[in-house]
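$ run holo --ligand "magnesium ion" --emit tokens
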Amino acid sequence: MSIEVTNISKVYGTQKALNQVSFKVNKSEIVGFLGPNGAGKSTMMKILTTYLDASDGKAKVNGHDTKANTKQVQQSVGYLPEHNPLYLEQYVREYLSFNAQVYGVAKSRINEVIELTGLTSEAHKKISQLSKGYRQRVGLANALLHNPEVLILDEPTTGLDPNQLVDIRNLIKNIGKEKTVFLSTHIMQEVEAMCDRVIIINKGEIVANTTLKALQTEKEQVVVVEFDYRVEDAFLLKLPKVKAVENTHDFVYEITFATADDMRSHVFDFAHDNQLKILQLNQKNASLETLFRELTS
Ligand code: ADP
Ligand code: MG
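-- output --
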């Protein structure tokens, strides 16, 4: 077991940030820790990385207790904190060398992590000269320096542009082939793009813990369709296996079907039969989004 959290609570003064939180993360899993702002994600991650003591409960990383075996936990875990604090005036290689020295990591590892995180062409630059995406890579390289078993990444993609987002997600997925990754996010698509499992937290409490597979096989599906003209909801409700129709804006409709089968061709035929033109037609993985909204609103 890579992470084992049992009844962790955390109180800041009078503010209860975590309330009896329990969950496990298996070796080599990529688990998304999903929740709205203020849910307690960063607090949980700081406890797991020994930056913060829990008020109550027990947490183990790689089998080591976060309170009793701080050092072993730190050796087991690579941490990318929220907002990735970097020394902007340092050069990439200099920054990594400095930290390698602090952690007693062999010099040869510096080139390894530079290569692993795709920083080779940027390693000679000052951190201040790097884009946000490359700065995140520096943070990831730093987290990987001591070759930890477990990576804890606190909102690793927040503030990235769409291209950088895809690059960093791919990088994390790649790293996740060899390591356990526990990453926080408030973006559902992120979980869908990267994770095997999702743990949803709201107001300091775990409200869901499920594999993406289980969610995807739930027998419900949403098709988003844009016509070139208005259609009566009642009309769309005649589609086979339809459960609900929502006109989200203009001529865009979200049609929920009570089946896991791809229903887009039925929508297409419907449009054709009724002389409507389709401007867009997409299948949306509704389950996670619906679940998130239901559980955190
Ligand atoms: P998230 O990372 O999910 O956005 P946090 O763990 O940062 O959530 O915060 C959880 C709750 O604890 C929030 O209500 C936040 O305001 C509060 N909180 C976080 N850090 C502190 C602190 N140092 N002192 C007081 N309250 C805090
Ligand atoms: Mg946070």
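-- notes --
The mean pLDDT is 93.
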